[in-house]
Amino acid sequence: MKRNGLVFIALCVIIIGMVVSGKYLNRVRGRNRVVAGDVRGKVAPDFELTSLDGKRVKLSDYRGKAVLLNFWATWCSPCKVEMPWFVDLQKKYGNDGLVVLGVAMDDSDSAKIAQFASEMGVNYPVLLGTDKVSEEYGNVEFLPTSFYIDREGKFVGKGVGLLARSEIEGNIQKALASHVVGLSEAAESPADKAAGQQVTAQ
Length: 202
Description:
Blueprint: H1 2-31, E1 48-51, E2 56-58, E3 66-72, H2 77-93, E4 98-104, H3 110-119, E5 126-128, H4 131-136, E6 145-149, E7 155-160, H5 165-176, H6 190-201
Parallel strand pairs: 3-4, 4-5
Antiparallel strand pairs: 1-2, 1-5, 3-6, 6-7
């Protein structure tokens, strides 16, 4: 009987904890409604973070580009799998207007993160993440988490955990397919210009 009483008390504590957590998560979701659930078509929150070379970088600096925003950490095993894919995809689509932005959610100092990025052959900007940017993007709980943002700064997709490379590339292609209204010819990517010339020729 004594044991049953302890089990009952433990269950009560767990249930109370779940209720409290649920209320907290609802408050958090209320603050971050922009990235809750299906994010497609919503505007990605702008942010300003420090890069590994000490520069201040804003997401809005890349308006007109397609952005793969990847939250990762040096201790994250799945992140190590997909980072070489990002390197290849940056090479493949960089001239078409893709920018991969890595947001390091480490407690390590920037020198260790920079060393890790160098060892992984990273060819895209790495930014030092903060709790604030995590909150703005729906409280990133799982790594890796990636957001795919089109040329107008709107989400076209989101991936949590390790996705297949084909799925990552498909989301990149969706982001690249968008066009910014009023984008000058000078700012267009080679792919955009080629597509325009092809239409004219027809």
